[in-house]
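Predict structure. Input: DUF4177 domain-containing protein, 56 residues.
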Amino acid sequence: MAAMTTWEYATVPLIVHATKQILDQWGSDGWELVTVLTGPDGNGLVAYLKRPSGER
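Output follows.
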């Protein structure tokens, strides 16, 4: 039986004029974008990312 993948998660505030650069940097570190939602205060955007545990 194959081992089940375990995940670690991150939330990252996005700066509108630098969104691509921010996501590219996290992506190069092995993070996968799950979704982007409005921040908890109703302003700005927050990216939710995941990667398999232990991929540092």
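The CA atoms of residues 14 and 45 lie 5 Å apart.
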